[in-house]
Amino acid sequence: MQLMIYSKALFSTWIYYSPDRLLFDAGEGISSYMGNKIFAIKRIFLTHGHADHIAGLWGIINSRNNAMGDREKRLEIYFPKGSNAIREYSNFIKKVNSELKYELEFFPIGVGERILVKDNGNTKRFVVTFQVRHTLSEPAFGYNIIEERRKLRKEFLCLPKEKIIALMNKMGRDHLTYTYEKKILTISGDTMALSPEVVEGTDFLLHECTFLSKKDRKGEIHASLEEVLELIEKTRVKNAVLYHISSRYESVVDKIIRKAGSQLSDVSLDYVYPGKIWVR
Ligand SMILES: [Zn+2]
Ligand SMILES: [Zn+2]
Fold this sequence. Notes:
alpha/beta; binds zinc ion
């Protein structure tokens, strides 16, 4: 399992990315669903301060203090700088949970900030924030997970493996290789369709799709299916999962998204059914 997602627009949204033990958003119901797996979470990234994305945070913080698991494991929570709702909520949580057994830290972060989430010597991974277009009263972010990878320099490509290893030992790996960055996961958060630049080159796109028809939308704060499909085509993303779908579409969502998917060539398009867990 790499991704576990629950999402129903206006009610609750959370996304767990297991390779780096990251939770994106913490809508209500997450603790009871994950049970003791909440101890696996290392870092939580909140996209914005609306209740459907943060209401489960207090539950996680309490359950990690009392349930069966590593109760001394530190927890870091990152949120958009300037979010009054999250600042107030974090103050309340700290006040009523003043004697936690573990270290709990809240970090306000800005647009374009990179947070190192993995470094095993060979691979580094960062979560990088980007600005999205949601309500005016609340700063809102999306997140990219970016992996720093190494590639052999052109001039060494023709050498046999043994020779490369020998050179590597003699000259150091920086002499033979260079680093480049690969977007491996893009999470839109609540927003209008993302701009192509933040999505381009990603392996996997998780995009909100509150409205399956643009006509149902009032106000420019969420994305519609037409717009997300246009973005997928433009950026040539190969894997996309739509989430934050309004429950008004429960009976038609499967048909509509299957039809949309069949019209895209070479794209795997899936969706998170409102109110059901999606795992892959
Ligand atoms: Zn929402
Ligand atoms: Zn929202």
